[in-house]
Amino acid sequence: MAKTYVPALATSFGIVFLSFYQDLYLLYFNIFVPIAVIALGDLLVTIEKHTKNYGGIIVLLSIIIVINLFNVGRYINTIHGFMAIPNITEFVNIVENTKPDYLYGEFGIVQGISYLSGIPMLEGVSDTNRTMFLAGVLDKNTITEKVKKTNTVVIANSSDNNLDIGTASAYLNWGELKNQCKIIHSQDFKTGSSVNKINIVKCF
Length: 204
Hints:
Layout: H1 5-20, H2 22-28, H3 32-51, H4 54-79, H5 88-98, E1 102-105, H6 110-117, H7 130-134, H8 140-149, E2 152-159, E3 162-166, H9 168-171, H10 174-177, E4 182-188, E5 197-202
Parallel strand pairs: 1-2
Antiparallel strand pairs: 2-3, 2-5, 4-5
């Protein structure tokens, strides 16, 4: 039965991570899904060969399938609506009525707002992921100065309208802008963290 250790561990790893760490498993370890499926097949064949207990194999397989379906369903239900802006038409209309020359801000959000409104992104920057700044591809000082000197609306998330608690500091020197910029519209925003608002921030 020693040969069952590896497939048993692979199967157990998949079940445990899918049960308690769905984000990690499905985002970073999804490559192990086919490996776990193959390992499970190997495990069942080995158990059948040594025990001839077909009923037990069917029960074990049924339990694993039910657990995994439950966990995947729970995960899908949990992330439903994540990073989605309710009343997107109203949101875009408010941005347009502010009449900015440029948009800047939240990665994964500002691109869609720019497309729907026809307002270009500041300096053509569409990726404000913090890794772009850590890698030196983008410079926060340069972009912050551009925001100061142009008619720019920043799309930023926050915790309860407190922009000091949010991601704006990841792509701007927010301390230099907080007295110049003000929130003109805010609405609920589901992220699964303390960040719970998406804001239209006027900086001119």
